[in-house]
Amino acid sequence: MRSTRCRVAGSVFVALLVHAGAFAQSLSSPTRTQCKQWDDAYLSTFQTGLTVCAVATLILPFLFGLLVGRLSWIAAAPRLRIVVVGLVVVLLVELGVVALPWMVGFGWLWFSPIETRYFDCIPLQFGAQGLFRGLMGAGVAAVAQWPTLTYLLLLAAAAAGLVAWLISEFVARSFGLSQRARREGA
Question: Quick one: which of 4, 74, 79, 110 is 20 to 30 A from 28 by CA?
Fold first, then answer.
């Protein structure tokens, strides 16, 4: 009885492998034009994610402080709030734009204009534009540049966090407790 189950399971496994191999062979390799279109679509998605990362890191610490500042000590500390919100935003954008294609592939949600065969374009020379109109990684598929994409997200969040910190310091010095004490004491 056990050997029969093993044979059946083995037969099913071999059939699935043969079917998967036949399916993969039936698909032709992508053309240079298709690779270029998919690469441009992925770059557009990444640039949108980069913008969202910077803007969210700049705005959310202030909103988070207003909404939750009286309930949590982390939300009441402006510098810590900026760091925590910035790291959470980077993590979410990293997962949603950079890591998600490697985990589940393309062809759905915000990756719907990108075919699942985009990974086949990585070894091909198709004239990839590169990041920031060729300033970084020209000639390399954008999905293959995931370490650079991660560093750019961290850099955008750090720059936006610095601006948020400067705004926070300006507001605290101009309208904070020390300014109130000076006005009331004079």
Answer: 110
Pick from 160, 167, 128, 168: nearest CA to 50: 160
Task: Please state the separation of Cα 23 from the chain's center in Å.
Answer: 31
Residue type, 4: T
Q: Is 131 helix (H, G, I), strand (E, B) or coil?
A: strand
Exposed/middle/buried for residue 101 (C-beta within 10 Å: 0-12, 13-18, 19+): buried
Q: pTM to 2 decimals? A: 0.73
**DSSP 8-state code for residue 127:** -
Q: At residue 70, what are phi and psi to the nearest 5 degrees?
A: -90, -10
**Euclidean distance between CA atoms 163 and 161, whole angstroms:** 5
φ and ψ of 140, to 5 deg:
-115, 135
| Res 165: pLDDT | 94
Neighbours of 162 (CB within 10 A): 14
